[in-house]
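Attaching the record inline, Q. Sequence:
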Amino acid sequence: MKPIHLLAAFFFVMICNSVSAQSFKLAVHVGANMNKIAGQSFSDEYELGYHLGVAPEIMFAKKWGLQPEVLFSQTNTKTSTEFSDIYNPSLNEIKDIKLNYLSIPILLTYRPAKIFALQAGPQFGILMSQDKNLLEEGKEAFKKGDFSMVAGAQVYLLGFRVYGRYAIGVANINDIDNRDNWKSQTIQIGAGFTF
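Structure, as predicted:
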């Protein structure tokens, strides 16, 4: 059985078990992204973006829970001078890149204390839009999907939560060729308002 099938089966069992969950809370999340794409074609500096969406928290045991989220997430980055050398000789300037993703992190939550949680899990990203002026003839440079691993912490304060996390891309999102691996890296800081 493929690892992705095992992962899907694990989360299906977790969700089924959560039907008898000890608690369920829904939050709206909003926050900042600091993004970069690792690879010689892109700048090594983090650029500011944002994210917003919904995040239910399902506690299926006293200290354990699951937090599947649906987020609109904007990734901003810049090309490096190597990009034009490798892919587009007519592009002789550093270009700002904007990618919009529908991100779906599925985070396992461990709450050692009532006000604090550690979180980790996979994140699936669906590319909603991208800059089409990066390559000649409007060819798209980025794959339609991204797969990342996420780890972070969350603090609960009177009806809202504050969180910080780091996501590192596992999949190569370069859709041009295999001369350069492009992998996303994101630092997220945000707040969730609980209903």
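The mean pLDDT is 86. The chain has two helices and nine strands.

More tomorrow.
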